[in-house]
Design a protein that fits this description.
Distance between the termini: 26 Å
Number of domains: 1
Number of helices: 3
Oligomer: single chain
Strand order of the largest sheet: 5-4-3-7-6
Radius of gyration: 14 Å
Mean pLDDT: 85
Low-confidence stretches: 132-138
Helix content: 25-40%
Strand content: 25-35%
Number of strands: 7
CATH superfamily: Transcription elongation factor, GreA/GreB, C-terminal domain
Amino acid sequence: MKYGVVVIEEKEHELLRRFIGLSQEYKDQTYKLSVEKLRNELLNARIVRNMDMPVDVVRMNSTVTIKTPFNVEKTYQIVTPDKSDIRKNMISVLAPMGLALFGYAEGDEIQWQFPAGEKAIEITKVRQPAMSLKANEL
């Protein structure tokens, strides 16, 4: 793990905490395991201000390219649940994949429990929308 712990922007941290609180009623076991793992990671997460957020960390609206153990590369955008559309490769931050990637950085490899079992995924690229970049990085 590049930064030792997940790194989360302070407003997004609060949003995730609210989402997790609302997700208590879900019955899907894989989803529950994903939420529980994120909840535990949030306990030790490094919470930073927007201006101090590393640009290579997955956050809301990040575009993330991952590589699976089968050498398949796929690019997704991490979005709020209401904007999720898998046909457009826009996945909810609360989907198992969104939960798996959030707060991790480019180059990190993550073990995560997916519906088909535990898989290793590698984050090969992270891009931020221009509006969330620091002024000196535009």
